[in-house]
Amino acid sequence: MTTPIVVTAVFFPAADQHDAVVSALSPAIAAVHEEPGCLLYAIHDAPDGSIVMIEKWESEELLDAHGAGDAVATLTAALAGTLERPVEVTRLVPIPAGTAEQGQL
């Protein structure tokens, strides 16, 4: 049995670039939702002005394939000039606690 992988990716839009970052992310999200192993791929506004993507993948292998795929390459190109600093990506491994439905993403 493989362990799902949860990922956060934090995007830091440059001044007046929030909408441009969202516009770049939106088609990528639709494309990634079609990728094998994608269980969750969603963006959220954070209070500090950053945009936080939360991802969940069936396995590390499928996440790695996503990272090497066309959707990420296209997104990287679309984000050129819109970010004030590099995206912060963190891979997380769940520590299940409580109920199976509520104790992990």
The helix count comes to 3
Q: What is the CA-CA span between the terminal residues?
A: 17 Å
Strand order of the largest sheet: 2-3-1-4
Helix content: 25-40%
- What's the architecture, going by CATH? 2-Layer Sandwich
Q: What is the overall silhouette?
A: globular
Structural class: alpha+beta
Secondary-structure element order, N to C: EHEEHHE
Q: How many domains, in number, for the residues? A: 1
- Measured by DSSP, the beta-strand proportion falls in 25-35%
- The CATH topology is given as Alpha-Beta Plaits
Uncertain stretches: none
Number of DSSP-assigned strands: 4
- The whole-number mean of residue pLDDT values reads 93
Rg measurement, Å: 14 Å
Largest sheet: 4 strands, antiparallel
| Name of the CATH class | Alpha Beta
List keywords for this structure.
single chain; 105 residues; alpha+beta; Alpha-Beta Plaits; 3 helices; 4 strands; 30% helix; 32% strand
Describe this structure in words.
With 105 residues, this protein is of the alpha+beta class. The protein has one domain (5-92): Alpha-Beta Plaits, CATH 3.30.70.100. Helix content is 30%, strand content 32%. It has three helices and four strands, in the order βαββααβ. It has helices spanning 18-32, 60-67, 70-78; strands spanning 5-13, 38-45, 51-57, 83-92. The chain has a four-stranded antiparallel sheet. Strand 2 (38-45) and strand 3 form a beta hairpin. Helix 1 (18-32) runs antiparallel to helix 3 (70-78). 12% of the residues are buried. The mean pLDDT is 93.
